[in-house]
Design a protein that fits this description.
2 helices, globular, binds zinc ion
Length: 68
């Protein structure tokens, strides 16, 4: 419990918690409206405020996060 491990939600399960795909920040109550949702290769990924702001250009350019 003292070291939470970010992990993707199991398919078919509507997990309330989301994890920032870049820095691993967790939001246990679901993605806040300030977070950015980006679909890459058919997979929905979330980015926290700081990461979204830092990579706004890349996200708007629809570049995969692998580019960052
Ligand atoms: Zn982040």
């Amino acid at each position: 419990m003292d070291q939470p491990t970010p992990r993707p939600a199991p398919p078919g399960t509507e997990a309330p918690s989301v994890v920032c795909a870049r820095c691993g920040a967790q939001s246990p109550a679901g993605a806040p409206p300030t977070w950015t949702c980006s679909v890459e290769n058919g997979t929905r990924q979330y980015f926290c405020v700081d990461c979204a702001r830092a990579n706004l250009r890349a996200i708007e350019g629809r570049l995969d996060s692998a580019w960052w």
